[in-house]
C-alpha cells in the first residue's frame, strides 16, 4: 500500500513566517493536487507538524546561539533557529490553503532535542507514532513532499529508506532553507544516492 507524507507545511515555514522558506507557497497547489489524488484513490495521507514548546533549545534565544550558526545541543550538532512552530501558535498551524489532513504526526515536542525526521528525534532516542501508523496500514511505499528539503524532508526520507520503505520524493512539492546555497540540491542528491526515487508531481497523473 502507498501513503503520502506531507512534511511541515506550516505558517512559520511559509511567506511571512518566522523561518520562512523561499517560495514555500509555490508548493501549496502541488501539495493540494497530490493530496486530492491520494484521497481519491483511498490511499493514506499523513501530515507531520513541527510542534515545539516555547522553551525549545533549538531556538537561538533559548540557547544563547546565533540564528543560522551551528552549536552543540546535548552532544549533537544543532543549527540555532529562530523561534518557530511554537505549540498552538498561529505559526504552527498548517498553511490555510492546504487541504486538511486528519492523520497528524507531531515532532520536536521535547525541548531538549530537535527532531527533523517524522520518525525519530535527531538522537534516535524516541520515536513518533509514524512507523506504527504505517505498519498498521500495511504501507510499503511512501511519497514525500513538503518543507524543508534540506531538513525535515531529507531526514524523514533517509529514515524511511533505512526502515525499508520504497520512497518517492516529489521534488516540485519541496522547497529548502538553503543556509548554504546548495543545501537543497545536495539533499536531493543524497536522498537519491541512498535509494529514493526523485519524481515530479506530474509523474503521478
Ligand atoms: C525544520 C528547521 C527547524 C523543517 C524544522 O521542517 O525542515 N527546519 N525545524
Ligand atoms: Zn523546528
| Coarse structural class | alpha/beta
Question: What is the spatial order of strands in the main beta sheet?
Answer: 5-2-1-6-7-8
What string gives the helices and strands in order? EHEHEEEHEHEHE
Mean pLDDT: 98
Which segments are poorly predicted (pLDDT under 50) over 5 or more consecutive residues?
none
Q: For this structure, what is the CATH class?
A: Alpha Beta
Radius of gyration: 16 Å
Structure keywords:
single chain, 205 residues, alpha/beta, Rossmann fold, six-stranded parallel sheet, two-stranded antiparallel sheet, 5 helices, 24% helix, binds pyrazine-2-carboxylic acid, binds zinc ion
Describe this structure as you would to a colleague.
- The chain has 205 residues and is an alpha/beta fold.
- It has one domain: Rossmann fold (3-Layer(aba) Sandwich), CATH 3.40.50.850.
- The protein contains 5 helices and 8 strands.
- A hairpin with a 2-residue loop joins strand 3 and strand 4 (76-79).
- The mean pLDDT is 98.
- Zinc ion binds next to loops.
- Residues 50, 52, 58, 81, 84-85, 108 line the site of zinc ion (ZN).
Write the layout of secondary structure elements.
Elements: E1 2-7, H1 27-40, E2 44-50, H2 60-63, E3 70-73, E4 76-79, E5 103-107, H3 130-136, E6 141-147, H4 149-162, E7 166-175, H5 183-193, E8 197-199
Parallel strand pairs: 1-2, 1-6, 2-5, 6-7, 7-8
Antiparallel strand pairs: 3-4
Helix pairs in contact: 4-5
Bound molecules: pyrazine-2-carboxylic acid and zinc ion.
Amino acid at each position: 500500500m502507498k501513503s503520502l507524507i506531507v512534511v511541515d507545511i506550516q505558517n512559520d515555514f511559509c511567506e511571512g513566517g518566522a523561518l520562512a522558506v523561499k517560495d514555500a507557497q509555490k508548493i501549496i497547489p502541488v501539495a493540494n493536487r497530490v493530496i486530492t489524488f491520494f484521497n481519491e484513490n483511498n490511499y493514506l495521507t499523513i501530515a507531520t507538524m513541527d510542534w515545539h514548546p516555547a522553551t525549545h533549545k533549538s531556538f537561538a534565544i533559548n540557547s544563547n546561539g546565533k540564528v543560522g550558526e551551528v552549536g552543540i545541543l546535548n552532544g549533537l550538532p544543532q543549527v540555532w533557529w529562530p523561534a518557530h512552530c511554537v505549540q498552538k501558535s498561529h505559526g504552527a498551524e498548517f498553511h490555510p490553503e492546504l487541504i486538511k489532513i486528519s492523520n497528524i504526526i507531531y515532532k520536536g515536542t521535547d525541548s531538549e532535542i530537535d527532531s527533523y525526521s517524522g520518525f525519530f528525534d535527531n538522537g534516535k532516542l524516541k520515536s513518533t507514532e509514524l512507523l506504527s501508523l504505517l505498519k498498521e496500514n500495511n504501507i510499503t511505499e511512501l511519497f514525500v513532499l513538503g518543507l524543508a528539503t534540506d531538513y525535515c524532508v531529507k531526514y524523514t526520507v533517509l529514515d524511511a529508506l533505512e526502515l525499508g520503505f520504497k520512497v518517492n520524493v516529489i521534488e516540485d512539492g519541496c522547497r529548502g532553507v538553503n543556509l548554504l546555497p546548495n543545501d537543497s540540491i545536495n539533499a536531493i542528491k543524497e536522498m537519491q544516492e541512498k535509494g529514493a526515487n526523485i519524481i515530479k508531481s506530474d509523474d503521478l497523473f
